[in-house]
Amino acid sequence: MSGYDPLAQAGNKAKGKRPWFFENREAERVMNIVMALAQEVSVMRMRLDTVERLLDEKGMLTRADIEAFAPDKAEAAERGAWNQEFIARVLRIVQQENEAVEAAGEMSSEDAGKELGLS
Amino acid sequence: MPKDGAASNSSMPHYDGPPDYRLVGRHDVFPELTHDEAERFNFLAHMNRHLAARVLPGVKNAFEMRIAPKAGDSFKSRHDVRKALLKDPAFQTWSALRRATMEQRQQAGRWVTLRQGDALTAKARELTTGDDRLQLEPQFTVPNYLTAVDHHCMPGSYHGEVLPGDVTGPANYDCGIFATTGGALGRYNDGGGHAVVAWLKKNLPDFKPKRILDLGCGLGHNVLPIAEAFPDAEVIAVDSGAPMLRYGLARAKSLGINNVKFIQANAEDLSRFDDESFDWVQTTMFLHETSRSAMGRIFAESRRLLKPGGMVLHVEQPQYAADMPLFEQAIRDWDAFYNNEPFWTTMHEIDLDDLMIKAGFKPGSAIHGGVAAVVDTSLFPSAGDDKVEDYGRKAAWELIGAKKEAA
Question: Distance (Å) from the C-alpha of residue B289 to the closest C-alpha of chain A?
């Protein structure tokens, strides 16, 4: 290795001041950490899926088998669908906040309860 | 389980997500990826797809239901819309996730390429040393529009070098662009180049260029389909980034395409080439990474270099026409403000026909068309048929050009 550090330099900041979008920078920092973790959970789940498929097929396996694994089209669709489900679950709150836009006037259960108590 | 996977699939909804990363085409300077590194790119491709297909529509809804009604008719431009969006939580969340995904993609690709930087560089050196199809200028000054910020958050941009003879930057670009486009650029990320060739064969079937110039070629992914389509032509690919050109020649050779020269030059000053020495000047997703004054000079140079009857073609995302909704314009502008594409917003409002006339092309000589990435649709998604709009990133473009009058 000639005088550079892949681990540090892989994560270098791109030149140009970074935009932040949330009103609370700490929240956005945590979101970035959570999404990096989500990525690694996905990677781990895919590795497990690979192990399961290879065990189904061969009954035994080596780490080299895992590295050489390439899903066929149907297997890739199953794995892709898992990733879609996974992301949809992790980002459920985003979906629900967006759905709430269309329900701007809806009442809370507390308010509904008050009305029901009166009626 | 049966290898065709049919047994377990009957209860699953139809799958329309990105293909598996392992379909990405390999060549001699393509980095090696472990199982987990490939899966990281799969996840990021899914993230971008999710953000475009399932989160961005919520931003549009928020705009229509709670931003626009409050604004009345006070929105005069896409910038007014963008500034209002910045205060809305739906846009904030989509943006924060989109930016995070891009940064994760860069880190993932840089890790892959830097951990094998010495090996990649040695392979490129082996393939290019002593080959006069690679011409670098050690004293070259990179134009300021490429040094102000690192384009699309790619640390080091197109020209940065981490080690001598570096090719890790282009290797990162090559192996990671799948994540940003979900495979829509095809096996060799060359769907744009194939689209230009297909357009040409359909619309100008008699055009048989002998000498072709590609400006801002990057790692050459879009010029190779052109070189392949015209195997007897001499093709010259120009870029300002030495790592791109090294990698470009090594990649072209290992893919068996041998009629392309990779030359380091500034597209604003191509005085090394004679007047009227090219039949075709091409740029593909290049102009938006230049500047207003540079574009004027690039257009003038392209006209000077064209033979009478020759043709210049530029491929870009659509211009901000008056009939494009301001919301769409504001979203298309996202990369300009939040993904280090600083000239993107201005470039997309410039009257390109007018600029070509100012560069000397005759009124009425303009060429207009629309193209979508041409890929192997048995394996890769077809952008032309995709209803999901990832504004500014969809693999479907406008083609703008001009023909130089015959002598």
Answer: 15
Cα–Cα distance measured from residue B328 to residue B61, given in angstroms and rounded to the nearest whole number = 12
Q: What is the pTM of this model?
A: 0.93
Domain with A74 in it: 19-102
Domain presence at residue A108? no
Rounded to two decimals, the ipTM of the complex is 0.87
Mutation choice for B interface testing from A15, A24, A33, A65 by most B CBs within 10 A: A15
CA dihedral (B108, B111, B117, B119) positive or negative: negative
Band (pLDDT 50/70/90 cuts) for residue B11 is low
pLDDT band at B13 (very low <50, low <70, confident <90, very high): confident
Neighbours of B86 (CB within 10 A): 15
SS3 call for A103: coil
Q: Give the integer Cα–Cα distance in Å for B142 and B145.
A: 8
Model pLDDT, residue B212? 98
CA dist B373 and B104 (Å) reads: 25
CB of B86 within 8 Å of any CB in chain A? Answer: yes
How far apart (Å, rounded) are the C-alpha atoms in residues B93 and A28?
9
First to last CA, chain B: 68
Using alpha carbons, select from B201, B267, B266, B257 the residue that is nearest to residue B234.
Answer: B257
| Closest listed residue to residue B153, CA positions, set A112, A103, A14, A9 | A14
The number of domains in chain A is: 1
Spatial distance between the Cα atoms of B29 and B134, rounded to a whole number of angstroms: 16
Q: What is the largest CA-CA distance in chain B?
A: 68
Q: How far is CA B40 from CA A90, B15, B85, B372, in A?
A: 16, 20, 30, 27
In a domain, A4, yes or no: no
pLDDT value at position A2?
A: 62
Residue B237 to chain A, least CA–CA distance (Å):
26
B58/A95 touch (CB, cutoff 8 Å), yes or no: yes
Residue B209 confidence (pLDDT) above 70? yes
Q: Delimit the CATH 3.40.50.150 region(s) of chain B.
A: 183-403
* A38 Cβ contact partners less than 8 Å away, ≥ 6 residues apart: A86, A87, A90, B43
Q: Which residue(s) pair with B239 in the sheet?
A: B264
Strand partners, B402: B312, B366
Range B111-117 average pLDDT? 97
Domain assignment present for A40: yes
Task: Decide: helix, strand or coil at residue B398.
Answer: strand
Its CATH architecture, for the domain B183-403, is: 3-Layer(aba) Sandwich (3.40)
Residue numbers of B between 140 and 159 with CB closer than 8 Å to A: 148-150, 153-157
**Of A27-36, B2-11, B265-274, where does mean pLDDT reach its minimum?**
B2-11
